[in-house]
Design brief:
Oligo-1,6-glucosidase, domain 2; single chain; TIM Barrel; glycosidase; Alpha-glucosidase; GH13_cat_dom; Immunoglobulin-like; Glyco_hydro_b; O16G_dom_2; 6-stranded antiparallel sheet; 26% helix; binds 1-O-alpha-D-glucopyranosyl-D-fructose
């Protein structure tokens, strides 16, 4: 896939508005706060912003429960505030990608309210009758009429059954997430048309793309078959992803809405979405999305339970990236991410959040920005933020974390929060949702000094913040800025083919990028060699023979100040040292 695209060359910055910057001092981040920070984003050098949902919402899941797709929630401001953000970004050549939630609405959405009354949208959601509790092998809930169990045994992502009983309609509705997030029935043509209308509305407002929330859950398996009773994610994660009509729906969405516009469209694809399945979603031959988010790499080191941690090795991580880098070559485009609002901080996860925090943050960043694909930077990642230490369950705000832990306690699976505290602190979605750290002052400059932030601050905010790092040219922040510039300056880092030269090494990840001449704007920069020491010990790096002795520019190194000419030779890499050589 040699064709150039702005969204292949872009670095995307993800803004979780609730935690980014608070303009009105109520303790919750908002659009006015974001507009004020447009210069910050321009200084960092990012090309696009992915904005998490700001639509009208009762906020059962921080905006992923949308009550009106065409309105901005009061928490974040007004439509005028949103337009000010759009304009502030566009004036700085930063594009705007909106998060869109096609799989479910809020139960407070007018469509659902009308549906439960069997009005015009009666069949827009997944409604089903319950079953006789005596005839099924799973538990009835205390909801619903006596002796009646939900239609099947699926569990919701956030704990509990995936069905809730509605007293008004006297039927059950499907919710793969919270009960306040009923799933839409995409097999109903009017549902699809209604969603396309919402998407068009935002495109007409001049945005540059969409991140499509759990897009691969839209097509449910016929007849709602029961899943494995022992698997907590039996239906939602095992049976629903990439369902029977999914590619029909996504291709239709593309043709109806996206076709003919040059958009960044990225579909979140959860569950087992392998390379071949992914290729069906993306350009050029697939359904037409620009790229997808898969979960293969962020699943490493995690068990079934939220708090469960497993051993992992660098070779596991390499195997996943190698599979996607080579697997999509010529078939589609990769997204590159470690962090987002659902994932723990990568420095704590795959790096070293103590002694080599700066070095590991910059080393990991080097990987993401020198692989083939579009890198996504999540707010605070550019500071090398780490997971905070939550002291009690009361400090969490995330519906998934709170529900999962409470339920496990009630079911007797665990004794207390304390019993799983370390694991929850390692994996909770709130690990990355603490406020952005702007200054070393009160509330980290996120909100007014006397305001109460909606979620606690990370305990390290006085030392780790934008203000401090911008004055220090050796900081993680400055490294990100250089990395973003570097990728922009060298086509080989965007379009070059990837080859891993150390697939079996548990310490060193050394790979090359090679640009075939046809794809090159600047044939002088046709090759790159990247070597990462993914460890706190010294390690020997041997360049591949085709590169050894070659004249190159050491374009970036997380231990040195400025680019310099060099000959590529074997060297002893320092802990977490990252080097990027670019060759004439
Ligand atoms: O996430 C889907 C998703 O897979 C996660 O919520 C997942 O359940 C969790 O990370 C596992 O630990 C998307 C959004 O990114 C998320 O914020 C929403 O809560 C969810 O969809 C529902 O809209």
């Amino acid at each position: 896939e040699a064709a150039r695209s702005w969204w292949k060359e872009a670095t995307v910055y993800q803004v979780y508005p609730r935690s980014f910057a608070d303009g009105d001092g109520d303790g919750v981040g908002d659009l006015a706060g974001l507009a004020d920070r447009a210069d910050y984003l321009a200084d960092l050098g990012v090309d696009a912003v992915w904005l998490n949902p700001v639509y009208a919402s009762p906020m059962a899941d921080n905006g992923y429960d949308v009550a009106d797709y065409r309105a901005v929630d009061d928490t974040f401001g007004s439509m005028a505030d949103w337009r000010a953000v759009r304009d502030a970004l566009h004036e700085r050549d930063i594009r705007l990608v909106m998060d869109f939630v096609p799989n479910h609405t809020s139960d407070e959405h007018e469509w659902f309210q009308t549906s439960r009354r069997r009005g015009a949208t009666a069949d827009w959601y997944h409604w089903a009758d319950g079953v006789d509790a005596d005839t099924v092998a799973y538990d009835a809930t205390d909801e619903g009429p006596d002796g009646e169990a939900p239609p099947n045994n699926w569990r919701s992502f956030f704990g509990g059954p995936a069905w809730a009983y509605d007293d008004e309609r006297e039927q059950w509705y499907l919710h793969l997430f919270d009960p306040k997030q009923p799933d839409l029935d995409w097999s109903v043509p009017a549902v699809r048309e209604a969603m396309y209308d919402q998407l068009r509305y935002w495109l007409d407002e001049g945005i540059d793309g969409f991140r499509l929330d759990v897009v691969n859950l839209l097509s449910k398996p016929d007849g709602y078959p029961n899943g494995d009773p022992d698997d907590p994610f039996n239906g939602a994660l095992r049976l629903v992803p990439n369902g029977p009509r999914i590619h029909e729906y996504v291709a239709e969405m593309h043709d109806a809405v996206f076709a003919g516009r040059d958009l960044l469209t990225v579909g979140e694809c959860i569950g087992e979405t392998g390379v071949d399945e992914a290729a069906r979603y993306v350009r050029p031959d697939g359904d037409g999305l620009a790229m997808i988010f898969h979960f293969d790499h962020v699943g490493i080191g995690r068990g079934e339970e939220l708090w469960e941690r497993e051993e992992w090795a660098l070779t596991d991580l390499k195997a996943v990236f190698d599979r996607w880098q080579t697997g999509l070559e010529g078939r589609g485009w990769n997204s590159l991410y470690f962090n987002n609002h659902d994932q723990p901080r990568v420095v704590s996860r795959f790096g070293d959040d103590e002694e080599y925090r700066r070095e590991s943050a910059t080393c990991i960043a080097t990987l993401l920005h020198t692989l083939r694909g579009t890198p996504y930077v999540y707010q605070g990642e550019e500071l090398g933020m780490t997971n905070p230490t939550f002291e009690s369950l009361a400090e969490f705000r995330d519906v998934e974390t709170v529900r999962t832990v409470r339920e496990a306690i009630e079911a007797g699976d665990i004794d207390s929060f304390e019993a799983v505290q370390e694991g929850v602190n390692a994996h909770s979605r709130d690990t990355s949702r603490t406020p952005m750290q702007w200054t070393s002052g009160p509330n980290a400059g996120f909100t007014a000094p006397d305001a109460e932030p909606w979620i606690r601050l990370h305990e390290d905010h006085r030392t780790v913040n934008v203000e401090t790092q911008r004055t220090d040219t050796t900081s993680v922040w400055h490294y990100y800025r250089r990395l973003i510039d570097l990728r922009e300056a060298h086509d080989v880092l965007v379009y070059g083919d990837y080859e891993n030269h150390t697939p079996d090494d548990e310490q060193v990840w050394a790979y090359t990028r090679t640009l075939s001449e046809t794809a090159s704007r600047d044939a002088a920069h046709g090759r790159a060699f990247v070597a990462l020491n993914w460890s706190g010990e010294a390690a020997r790096v041997d360049p591949p023979s085709a590169f050894a002795g070659t004249e190159a520019t050491l374009a970036l190194c997380n231990y040195s100040e400025s680019p310099s000419p060099a000959t590529v030779t074997a060297y002893e890499a320092r802990p977490w040292e990252a080097r990027v050589y670019v060759m004439e």
